[in-house]
Amino acid sequence: MRLWRLLLGILALLLPGWAAAQTMPAAGWQAEPALGRLMLRRLAQTPDGMLWAGTDEGVYRFDGSQAIPLNALRRGGPALPPVPCNALLATPDGCLWLGTDNGLYHFSPTGTLRRLPLPASGSQAVPALALAADGRRVWVGQGGTAVQSYTLAGQPTGPVLPGMPGLSSVLPAPDGSLWLSGDGTRHLAATGRVLGAWAHTGRTLRPVLDPAGHPWLLSDQAAYRAGAGGRLEEVLRWEQPGTGQPVEVVPTAGAPTLLSQGAVRQLAWTPGPAPRPRVRFALALPPWPTANWSGRLWADHAGHWWVFDTGTRGCWQREAAPVFIRALAGPGGRPYSVRASVRLPDGRLLVSSYETGLLTQAADSPLAPLRRWAAAMLPTGNAPVLLAVLPGPRGPGSDWLAAGAFPFLRFNPRTGRFQKLPVAGQTATDIGLRTLVLDSASGRVWAGTQQGLYYYDPAAQAYRPYAPTGRPPLAGRVIEDIRPDGRGHLWLATPEGVEHLTLATGAREVYGPAAPVPRRAAVEGARCLYLAPDGRLWVGTRTHGLAVVEADGRIRAALTPSQGLPSASVASILPGPGGFLWLGTYQGLVRYQPATGQLLVFTTAHGLVSDEFNANAACLDPRDGSLLLGGVAGLHRIVPGQVPAPPAARPRLLLTALTALSASAEASRTRYLLGTDAPPALRLAPEQPLIDLHLALANSADGRRARFAYRVRGWLADRWLGLGTTPRLRLQGLPPGQYTVEIKAATSQGVAAANILRLPLTVSTPWWNRPVTWVLAALAASAAVYGWQRGRLRQLRRENALRARLAADLHDEVGTLLTRVTMQAELLRELEQGPALRLTALAEDSRAAASTVRDIIWSVDAEADTLAALVDRIRDHVAATARATGRDVEFDGDGLPADGTRALPPAVRQHTYRIYQEALTNALKYSPPGSLIVVGLRLTALLELTVTNEVDATLPSSRAGQGLRNLRQRADLLRAELAAGPVPGGWQVRLRVLV
């Protein structure tokens, strides 16, 4: 066994790159869905930060969320045919060169596509493009026949150099020579003379130049020094001999990067005048769906590597950096939720998990999978879940103190055995333990629970509640975390906020939303604390991010989601080298620099197995200074010194497309924008009520997590509104006017874009909502009302004239005739020339007919359309009724105005009078003789008529006759309120009508 370990150790020393590749998991690679749907061949990036993809069907621009065909961006020139694009090259002037199976194309930043002539006859395929070392020419490889240089404007220049079979890449050297790769490798002088040729049976060789300008040839397994006469001298090997695989080489800054089917290897050069290559680190690749592999590797400006296979669909990308986050595999490779971790005296790593109990890892295998510690058992025989462990002998002998579900335990780190520790004065086994902390100044161990604050009494080997004055001041309180300040005080994190406890007296200062200024802050739900050496207390909360209590006692919010924090819930705070704070949140790991406010966010894209971390499951590994942070899916080891620096290229916010949405889908259209386009003027109109702005954050290391915000100057008090990670802004529903739309963006790490988009916006009013339209409409309405009133007045005058003429005719003709008949009847009765009874009846009928005619004349007479005319008529009828019947009829007009000239509508006057007549007739019919009948009339907002009488008890009580139906019919015609029924002392008919 020792011999095998010795051999493995020697092999690891001899083959460091191979050993790293074998132990490195394929972590951090993220699939790119939009590009993964294409059959990719090449990728390129123009100076504006936009990515371009050459595929089997043509060329696409990728804005971070969607791939747009080049033909949709073209503003001039011929359309690009749907043929494979073998090579893409972005030049410093912003142009894009396309090498396709159908020839050479040049796409300008203004959108003009040109087909450039090739120098030689034969195949039109262009497999290779390269920018000259001086950046002023482009080398174009035509099939396997020729290589020609072009100016940046697209003009051929210089001699045509010979190609080589299977040409796939061209590497220009600073001295003007060329290195060609294909079926072997050739070195050509600027005149075309062959300076050297090399080949390796079964191997693809790619040339690179070291810092001293010396050539090296790299295969998928080793690095060779190119010697004279085609000789190859192997200098470094990272793979054992086996089946040869294609290799892709990217000349990244400082040293090349190699891609083979199994891994990406970053090389480095040794210092000195004769540099030699070495493997800096290796990254395992995701599994490929096919064995026939032809992979491509490309590096963008934001420090990311992109990997794809030209024979299959799929694209992956990750940060171009070594693995600084290492996830420790659990037993059987299954996920496990971590609660605590600590180094044991023998160097083993102890990890407590919820599902699998206690796990360990050997001291000499920092990347080995964790294994169950079968010997670690509670007295009940169950595996414990430890919430906290205090290393070092605190209990009897060499036992450590630990806390779990019991909750207080003694732990023997050699045997793994646990013993329960009692709580003085309490028999409950579960008091909801939250944390266990050592005060190094006093040596006292403090425990925070759901039932208050406790401390360990080593003399009694028991825990006691904190009670400085005899009564525990924190009894029943939830204590999430504790931090001693070494001066007799404790900082406590509670659901209500933060408290500063003086141990000698029990006095507390409260920090929270209800505390007085300057201790007022949104820190309710405080769950983790870190007391820095400078006296500042950092507070992680459940819903408000990170806060800080300054050394002078002031508290303030330090880091929130609006400042780049991926989650408002901070589960753990761990200090790291360089003054950084490492924050475990529910949506990623954050490295925060308090001095500058800079932060970096790490997610599953960087190697995390899950973005969610557990509360207070973080510690510093004393062996190597690495950070151990536990989450819901496992434990992560973070090496702070290997965290890559932020990319030098600042992110830039781009408007990639503009969609005008009209009422009909056919009229809606999308306009794709180029980097050289001026900011478009936006317009919202009735026929175009919606506008969608498509955004992209170029040169962003994690474009899909970029955050966007916008505001409309002149609307909503110029307030910024967040879009989250949605790269689209929809404008609609703004009031008419002139505005400026401003859009800003930031990366997931909170790095703001170098620019803010400013777009003018005009919101036009619909024709029916314009001021001139309203003025014209008002004038037209006024004219219509005026014309209607004039017509109505003329009609009313005609009706009044007709009524007056009819009344006059009735009065003059029928009234005169009835008067003569009445007079003759009276004369005959006085002369006694006829039967007296008949003459009396004739006289009475004549008088009744005359009265009826007078009523008809009054009804149609336009001069009688006044309140005074109605009152006079009612008074006359009351007097006539009283005389004719001998009954007491009284008229009550106290509620009438003194001026009776108030006009009444004819229908109101006529129907009111008829209702009065019918009600009075019924009152005379049903009231006892000698009783009083009262007729009332009053006018307020309503005209109210009442007829009140006593009821004859000898008559039937029903009033449901034809007369009452007539009354209701007339009231309905007036839309009036009619009530007929008993009242105290009799019966009443009441009519209320609006006039």
Automatic annotation (TrEMBL):
<dbReference type="InterPro" id="IPR013783">
    <property type="entry name" value="Ig-like_fold"/>
</dbReference>
<keyword id="KW-0808">Transferase</keyword>
<keyword id="KW-0547">Nucleotide-binding</keyword>
<keyword id="KW-0067">ATP-binding</keyword>
<feature type="signal peptide">
    <location>
        <begin position="1"/>
        <end position="21"/>
    </location>
</feature>
<dbReference type="Pfam" id="PF07730">
    <property type="entry name" value="HisKA_3"/>
</dbReference>
<dbReference type="InterPro" id="IPR036890">
    <property type="entry name" value="HATPase_C_sf"/>
</dbReference>
<keyword id="KW-0732">Signal</keyword>
<keyword id="KW-0902">Two-component regulatory system</keyword>
<dbReference type="InterPro" id="IPR015943">
    <property type="entry name" value="WD40/YVTN_repeat-like_dom_sf"/>
</dbReference>
<protein>
    <recommendedName>
        <fullName>histidine kinase</fullName>
        <ecNumber>2.7.13.3</ecNumber>
    </recommendedName>
</protein>
<keyword id="KW-0597">Phosphoprotein</keyword>
<dbReference type="InterPro" id="IPR011712">
    <property type="entry name" value="Sig_transdc_His_kin_sub3_dim/P"/>
</dbReference>
<dbReference type="GO" id="GO:0016301">
    <property type="term" value="F:kinase activity"/>
</dbReference>
<keyword id="KW-0418">Kinase</keyword>
<feature type="domain" description="Signal transduction histidine kinase subgroup 3 dimerisation and phosphoacceptor">
    <location>
        <begin position="803"/>
        <end position="859"/>
    </location>
</feature>
<dbReference type="InterPro" id="IPR050482">
    <property type="entry name" value="Sensor_HK_TwoCompSys"/>
</dbReference>
